[in-house]
Amino acid sequence: MPELRIPGLSSLLGEATAEKTDSAIILLMSPPGGGKTLFCRQMITDSLESGFLCIYINSSMTRKEYGKLFNNVTDPEIKNLKFLNPYLVSTSDKELENSTGINDPKLSATLQEIQNIIDEWSASNTNIGDPSHQATGSTLNNPPKCAIVLDSLTHMFTIFEEDKVLKFINALSFIIKELEAISLITMSGTQSSNEPILNKLSSIFDIVFEIAIQEESDKIKRKLRLVSIKGGSSKSSSTLFNIEQDGNLKFESEASSKSKFSICGLCKAPILEEPEYYLDMPFHQSHVKIYMKLAGAFGQARVSDVGPSGVIEAAFFFVDVVGLSDPALSVRRQIEKIEALNDMIGHCEIFKKTSDKRVLPTGDGMAIGFMLSPESPLQLGIELHQALKKYNTHTHKEDGSFLDVRIGLASGSVFIVNDVNSNQNIWGPGIIFARRVMDVGDGGHILLAGPLAESLLALDDKYRNIIKLLGDFQLKHGQIIKIYSAYSPNEFGNPVTPARFKP
Fold this sequence. Notes:
The chain has helices spanning about 10-15, 15-20, 35-50, 65-70, 75-80, 95-100, 105-125, 130-135, 155-160, 160-180, 195-200, 255-260, 290-300, 300-305, 330-345, 350-355, 375-390, 430-440, 450-460, and strands at about 25-30, 55, 80-85, 145-150, 180-190, 205-215, 220-230, 240-245, 250, 275-280, 280-285, 310-320, 355-360, 365-370, 405-420, 425, 445-450, 465-475, 480-485.
């Protein structure tokens, strides 16, 4: 039987366990820039070298782009690779739609085309990796060894109805299981942002991976994390990898990672850069000041027990009132503005219906962390601007009652700790990042940090009309970040470039 090496799996499970995985349906989640398409390419080229027949499904790629992606595949091997774009496939008749139960002509035709390719391979005895098939003839009882890769599920949700895509994936999973094939399906985003879809498809996937990205000055560190695997447990939870100049992926075992990297005293994760030490403990450079503040507020014992379970990923909304520190503004007027802002946010639909959130008053505004949805901060910003528009029709700038705000949105990790009254509080890079993004803006701006904006742009095409790239911005500490602006003329946001923005 051909031996297939799933990229990174031996680093996660060990050589012996990984070699036993000759059929499985794998989900790979990755934020923008994580390298999921190159992971797909690695999976396919490794499969071809092992004698597998491969089908590559991508709803956003043209045949020309497909040719460029696989220009490293040799002529004999490329014959064993088939490319399908469900959006461009010839539509099927109504009878086929009814037989598949998908009720979408293109998805039904794609499913039929996959089956036709498999039938053709079986009939022509082209499984070059297993001589037994060539000697006896391939049938569905003795199927060819196949690898089926779908990149990406997120894009398919943007061009087809969700329930029809889910039915397509379910039908495809039966074909994969009947073939005893290896399959890789990708999604944009993270485990938390994809939770609604994962809940619907969890029974299908045998292995779930997630790529995490960490930027360090001009370098990008990538980590492949094993989220779950059916019928077993991992020997190591993650493995570092690099994307080489030729586009190939180079993995590093967790054991070697641990020998080279210290563990952060706050988040308990490996430190990929040069650690910074405080009280003889190693930290991520961005976590030292956070630890010091948390330790000062809550005590070292509480903070030291935070651990990985106390570290969460969230999307943040940070808002403050513009001009609140104006000495000409009375204290009473300042209080009125803060109360008006709090009241408007409290009446926004997304704020009322979201249960899993954290609210931190900041004096002249507030920070809100949404634990489940990356879309919630932007939706709250849009609703708040609509409420402000109505509010300001009855106020005047001359008497100081006009209310103007600036909003910063970002995503990132935060740490949950208990205060002296055992109330939960959050603090961390996600909140700090949102504050820094907000500080760039002027009145009316809704600014987004690059990672959050790019995840939204990948999530739904509707965001392409309202989220626009401003460019790179250098913070006072020298860090360079990408900043986007969300606006729709006469509805919300501010289309004017912020005065502080100096790319």
